[in-house]
Design a protein that fits this description.
Elements (H helix, E strand, L loop, with lengths): L5 E6 L6 H11 L7 E6 L2 E6 L1 E2 L1 H14 L3 H15 L5 E3 L2 E3 L3 H4 L5 H8 L24 E4 L2 H4 L8 E6 L18 H18 E11 L9 H11 L3 E9 L25 E8 L16 H7 L3 E3 L6 H4 L7 H11 L5 E4 L6 H8 L3 E6 L2 H15 L2
Parallel strand pairs: 7-14, 8-9, 8-13, 10-12, 13-14
Antiparallel strand pairs: 1-3, 2-3, 4-6, 5-6, 9-11, 10-11
Helix pairs in contact: 2-3, 11-12, 12-13
The structure holds S-adenosylmethionine (SAM).
S-adenosylmethionine binds next to helix 6 and strand 14.
C-alpha cells in the first residue's frame, strides 16, 4: 500500500461470522478503492484511508451494525467509525473529508500575519487622498462634451466620479478625425499623464480608473507597464489586470522577424490589457440593491481573462479604434453600481457612455472630435427615443 493512504489499525476480540464478512465487503464496495480500502485479519482490521464521505459511511455502517446479530461485527464497525471520527485534521473536497495530501495545497501558513509584515500595496501608503466625496455639478451629468480633456476635466471638483473607463489614443498613427496619433513617445506620455493626473484628482475615494491599453509591440513600447507605473507612482492601488483575448488570429500570418532563427523572432499577440486602479481603498461604497451583476456573470467575469471579439462596427461608426460594447458592459457592471457616475475622457464614438446609459449609470463622455461626439450623442438618443 503506498503513501496515498492513511493507515488505521483496529484490534477486535472474537470472530466475525462468514456472512458478515461478505456484508462488510459489499458495504465497502460503495467507496472507491482510490479513497478507502481495508484488510481484515483475525483480531485486526487495517483501514487505508484517503478520502471519505463520512456521513454516508456512517449511515451505511450503522445500518449494518443495527442489522447484524454478531456483537463482534457491531463492535468492530463501531470502532472503525470512532477511529475515523477521531481524526480531527483533514481537508474538505466536495462532500468528502480528505485525509491525505490536503496540506500540500495550503501553501502559506499564517498568511494574514505575513501579509501584514510585508505590507500590501506599500506603494500607495502615505497618500494624501481626501476621503470626502463631492457631488458632480448638474451641467456635467449625462453629457457628451467636445473638447480637450486636459482642459475640460479641470472644471470638475475633486472626488466626484465613481468609475473612469477609457482607452487612450494609442499613438499608433491611426487617423482619428481631428487629432494626430503619431507623436514622439515622450510627448505622448507627457500629455496623457496630464489628463490622467486630472482623472486621479476627480475620481472618488474608493473609485476606480480602468484603462484599456494596447501596447505598440512593434515599437517595443510597453505602454501597459508605463501607464501602470504612472498610476502606482501616484499612489493609486493596482487592483489587477484583465487580459482581453480578441482571438484575432490575422496577426499570426505576418511579421515573423527572423524566420526560423533565434536572432530576432517577432512575438505576436491576439490580446489587449485592461488595467484597474483604485483610489485609497479597494472597497467601493454603494447600496447593495444597486448592484446589478448576476451570480453567473460575477463567477465568469472575476476570472481575469475575457474572450470578446473586437468591435465589428468600426467602419459603420467611422472610428478606427473602438472597443466593443461587451467590454464596457462587463467593466461597468463588475466595478460600479447603478446610478454611479461613469466618465470616459477619450470617449470616441461613445461606447462607454452608451453602455453606461443602458445600464442605468450616469455618464460623462469627452472627446476632442466634434464628429465623434455627435455620433456618441446619437447612440444615446437612439436608446432614449426608441
Ligand atoms: C482609442 S480612441 C477611444 C475609442 C472609444 N473607446 C470608442 O469605443 O469609441 C481614443 C479617442 O481619444 C480622442 N482624443 C485624443 N486626444 C484627446 C484629448 N486630448 N481629449 C479628448 N479626447 C481625445 C480621439 O479623438 C479618440 O476618439
Amino acid at each position: 500500500m503506498d503513501e496515498q493512504f492513511r493507515q488505521l489499525e483496529i484490534d477486535y476480540d472474537g470472530e466475525i461470522p462468514k456472512e458478515d464478512v461478505n456484508l462488510i465487503e459489499n458495504l465497502f464496495k460503495y467507496f472507491s478503492t482510490d479513497d478507502f480500502t481495508y484488510d481484515l485479519y483475525d483480531s485486526k482490521a487495517i483501514i487505508y484511508l484517503n478520502a471519505l464521505d463520512i456521513d454516508f459511511f456512517k449511515q451505511l455502517t450503522n445500518d449494518l451494525i443495527n442489522n447484524s446479530e454478531s456483537i463482534t461485527t457491531a463492535n468492530l464497525l463501531k470502532k472503525i467509525i470512532e477511529k475515523i471520527d477521531s481524526i480531527k485534521s483533514y481537508g474538505i473536497k466536495g462532500n468528502k473529508r480528505v485525509y491525505i495530501g490536503y496540506n500540500d495545497e495550503r501553501k502559506v501558513v499564517n498568511r494574514d500575519k505575513k501579509v501584514e509584515k510585508r505590507g500590501q500595496f506599500y506603494y500607495a501608503d502615505n497618500n494624501n487622498f481626501s476621503k470626502e466625496n463631492n457631488i458632480i455639478p448638474d451641467n456635467f451629468v449625462n453629457k457628451i462634451i467636445c473638447g480637450d480633456s486636459k482642459e475640460i476635466l479641470k472644471k470638475l471638483p475633486d472626488n466626484c466620479i465613481d468609475l473612469i473607463f477609457t482607452s487612450p489614443p494609442y499613438n499608433f498613427g491611426l487617423d482619428y478625425e481631428s487629432t494626430n496619433d503619431d507623436h514622439k513617445w515622450e510627448k505622448y506620455f507627457e500629455k496623457l499623464f496630464e489628463i490622467f493626473t486630472e482623472c486621479i484628482r476627480i475620481i472618488k475615494y474608493g473609485g476606480r480608473i480602468i484603462v484599456n491599453i494596447q501596447p505598440l509591440f512593434s515599437d517595443y513600447i510597453p505602454s501597459h507597464h508605463i501607464i501602470s507605473n504612472f498610476f502606482i507612482n501616484n499612489k493609486m492601488i493596482w487592483k489587477g489586470e484583465i487580459l482581453w483575448e480578441k482571438n484575432n488570429y490575422n496577426c499570426k500570418y505576418t511579421a515573423w522577424g527572423s524566420w526560423k532563427s533565434p536572432s530576432n523572432p517577432y512575438l505576436k499577440y491576439t490580446w489587449e490589457f485592461v488595467e484597474i486602479f483604485c483610489k485609497g481603498s479597494l472597497k467601493k461604497e454603494g447600496i447593495s440593491e444597486n448592484a446589478d451583476i448576476t451570480g453567473d456573470e460575477f463567477k465568469k467575469w472575476v476570472y481575469g481573462k475575457w474572450s470578446i471579439a473586437p468591435e465589428k462596427k468600426m467602419q459603420e461608426f467611422g472610428h478606427p479604434a473602438m472597443f466593443p460594447e461587451e467590454l464596457a458592459n462587463r467593466v461597468i457592471k463588475l466595478f460600479s453600481f447603478k446610478n454611479d457616475i461613469v466618465l470616459d475622457p477619450f470617449n470616441g464614438v461613445g461606447t462607454t457612455t452608451s453602455t453606461a446609459n443602458i445600464l442605468n449609470r450616469k455618464y460623462l463622455g469627452i472627446d476632442i472630435s466634434n464628429d465623434y461626439c455627435d455620433k456618441a450623442l446619437s447612440r444615446i438618443n437612439e436608446v432614449l427615443f426608441k
